[in-house]
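User: Can you fold this complex?
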Amino acid sequence: MGRRPTIIDVARLAGVSKSTAARALSDSPDVNDATREKVRKAAIASGYERNHLAVGMRSGRSGLFGLVIPDITNPFWAEVARGAQDIVGENGASLLVFSSDWDHDREASHLRALRQARVEGAIVNPVSDNAEDFGRFGVPFSLIGSSAERFPDTPSIGSDIRQAVRLGLDHLVARGHAAPALILGPKSRLARARFLRSVHEHCLERDIDPAVLLVEDGDYTFEGGHAAMQRLMARQRNGHLTVFCANDLMALGAMLAVREAGRECPRDVSILGFDGVPAGAFSWPGLTTIEKPARELGRRAAQALFDEIAGRPQDGRTYLPCRLIERGSLADLTVHTPLRVAGAGRS
Amino acid sequence: MGRRPTIIDVARLAGVSKSTAARALSDSPDVNDATREKVRKAAIASGYERNHLAVGMRSGRSGLFGLVIPDITNPFWAEVARGAQDIVGENGASLLVFSSDWDHDREASHLRALRQARVEGAIVNPVSDNAEDFGRFGVPFSLIGSSAERFPDTPSIGSDIRQAVRLGLDHLVARGHAAPALILGPKSRLARARFLRSVHEHCLERDIDPAVLLVEDGDYTFEGGHAAMQRLMARQRNGHLTVFCANDLMALGAMLAVREAGRECPRDVSILGFDGVPAGAFSWPGLTTIEKPARELGRRAAQALFDEIAGRPQDGRTYLPCRLIERGSLADLTVHTPLRVAGAGRS
DNA sequence: TTAACTTCCGGTAACGTTCCCAATAGATGC
DNA sequence: GCATCTATTGGGAACGTTACCGGAAGTTAA
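Assistant: Here's the predicted assembly.
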């Protein structure tokens, strides 16, 4: 099969110049209606389709946008990707999707690919706070997730961690739980610090000494949560154990560890997750968790990017509120309090 | 900030012509080593980065590939996307990702976007068997998932449904189960027919009359499986109920329905899934399922596409074997068989 | 010394599109 | 009737890159 028809072929077929054909096809008012119709017919007849490479070349607008997330396989990020995809699509553009695997080099390489593809903008969840990479990025971008503070002048969307943590702790208090143990992400990740800080703040507000909190590190994976929970159970063998996990995957891993240890959730151990991944609804018991508005995050990040590019006024940093989803992984300790609870909830 | 440096800027800075600069940067042998080094330095100093739009325009190779799947949010398809992403990335190209939501119009629109972006090739899971759309697609593509038969001359990758069903039924027989009830996808989807056909074949091989099988339709969603299971339990109130679900999401929904009905899995109801989604490992009991090699599917589809474009010989249709993952959702009926089993397993 | 050959480099064209400018024809105003 | 204006069109340039062609040196062989 031969080469794709160009606008010159269309022009020839319609018996006009390529300028006129281009005008007709781009809805310019400076073209006679009869001519336009003629050109349209020729375009359809020849199977012409605009070459976006050439358009981008000429206009500087490639119609391409980029998304760099840690892992498309992670249900949270898949939702984010979907949200971004939808908004980008509504604006007639296409989305290049990359997974960085939380790896600096991969991220850098993806950013380079985006620049070379001349994307009009990018949505990025930065691996960490290497501000230089983005200072020199050279492409409009919006940030998603954590690590927004470093870039006061670029739009950034995230979940409202403080509000989410408050929601979680309030709920725990209402259910009669003491200060929960924490399973956090790795120290290298920004989100960890933010989560921990919020927990501390809220503990102080409730006159709980943060130093009392048991803390274990995970790596945001199922296995990591599983291992962290095992360590936690080894550290506290008696009484009801309440655990607040920094993400759902670790919470689900923790749940497995509980079962394997012959303990039962929520009877012996209460688990609160954070993310709102679908799998949390399938576990047994269902995972009580704080849901991040993942898809909306993606949509807003994309929208902010379009606003930014169009020069529309920006909100700067935006934090979307999270929602508590109550399923079955939290005991209600207000009913019959076990004897040997570690610490006691006040208020 | 000014405009991006072009190869002309680099050439000027290095004191050579743009031809020489281009040669130097593209590792042509026809350039002096000293000159090459000079140009490289100038490129780095100016922050030059190749404009892929222009390269694509000139060479006809855009460095872009497309992926059209039903929904990036679906964990199976996310895995496929990741596999494709990896292979495409290894080849120095980028991947445009689209979700069709099983909608013809969206699919058509995505395919058009792909063509306009001048992707070098595309990986598609077609919404249905509208052969015309692809006959006229005009871009090399490989198919993934079902509906491959329509295109004997294009590479296509899928899971080996027959082998998978055999695996499942063999396992059920070994565990002492009779012919299972089925929860299938909607009639409009190709995969349904293929799955059902395989079940029938294997039943006949085992002297089981396929007409005996209870069948309910779902829609591949959690809710659909939930509802289908309720109908199934209403139809068969006594004895151990064994259900083979056409995908994991429905299986998980079915599991919930079982619990809600006060029955217990696997004691009263055995459930076998199909897909191998991660969530199946988090449910309780863990979902015994047949795992499709999702990521490998994506990798192979991408590889096939590259092979096809490079003119390397093709296998045509490839079906990758599936793997049974035994977790806890299947009872072992060979131990103490309940009295009123519906039908009896032969062998 | 000259011819042929190698090595390296510069100029130009082309990819497909859109934008700017000029040109044509008809219409309008005086 | 002539200038001016409007509506519509065509021609050419430019976006950034690479491929091709030819030329200028330097090198080797006779």
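The domain at 64-158+294-320 of chain A is CATH 3.40.50.2300 (Rossmann fold). Chain A has 13 helices and twelve strands.
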